[in-house]
Amino acid sequence: MKETAAARRYAKAFLDTFAESSAGNLDAISGQIRGVARAIADSHDLRSILLNPAVSDPQKRGILEGVMKAMNTGREASGAVLLALTKGRIGLLPEIAEEFEKLAFEALGKVRVDVTSAMDLSAEEEKELLGTLGKLTGKTAVLTVKNDPTLIGGVVVKIGSLVYDGSVSNQLKSLRVGI
């Protein structure tokens, strides 16, 4: 809980910093911070170095700057990541990135929607789903789509903690319970 609160504070501070000067780039900044967080999480060696108290802060900074340069991370996102490093919060970067994305999406009138379908959605079906979700939420939906053949048919839509389960497997489950 304490770590989540710290991540939220950093994300809020980043948003406040970037909201005026880089409002149009919030999506890009969020994606870049998330990309660096993912790179750290995916590389055991990098994570070990950045979290090792025996490695000096200038060495950590140099390594992290090299990684961000190779990833073409922008000035704003690099500054945010380096601030987390300087303040000893680099281990919280995944949580900070997640909280920052939520705040940036809210500021931009967007909402992340996770969609699980039994089969691949066509471009037309995705467009129709985006329109429906836009009307439902009053925001621009950003879809993350994955497939799960166990659903048999239909879709499961998750918006935050709200789940709409329109899958055939859920309907069959409901029928079984009623018998």
Short descriptors:
179 residues; alpha+beta; 8 helices; 14% strand
What is the ordering of alpha helices and beta strands? Answer: HHHHHHEHEEEH
Q: Helix proportion of residues, in percent?
A: 55-70%
Q: What would the average pLDDT be, to the nearest integer?
A: 91
User: SS-based structural class?
Assistant: alpha+beta
What does this protein structure show overall?
This protein has 179 residues and is α+β, with helices and mostly antiparallel strands. The protein has 8 helices and 4 strands, in the order ααααααβαβββα. It has helices at residues 2-21, 26-42, 44-51, 57-70, 75-86, 93-108, 123-137, 168-178; strands at 110-117, 140-147, 155-159, 162-165. It has a 4-stranded mixed β-sheet with strand order 2-1-3-4. Helix 2 crosses helix 5 (75-86). The radius of gyration is 20 Å and the shape is elongated. The mean pLDDT is 91.
Helices and strands in order, then pairings?
Elements: H1 2-21, H2 26-42, H3 44-51, H4 57-70, H5 75-86, H6 93-108, E1 110-117, H7 123-137, E2 140-147, E3 155-159, E4 162-165, H8 168-178
Parallel strand pairs: 1-2
Antiparallel strand pairs: 1-3, 3-4
Task: Please provide a brief summary of the model.
The protein has 179 residues and is of the alpha+beta class. It has helices at residues 2-21, 26-42, 44-51, 57-70, 75-86, 93-108, 123-137, 168-178; strands at residues 110-117, 140-147, 155-159, 162-165. Helix content is 63%, strand content 14%.
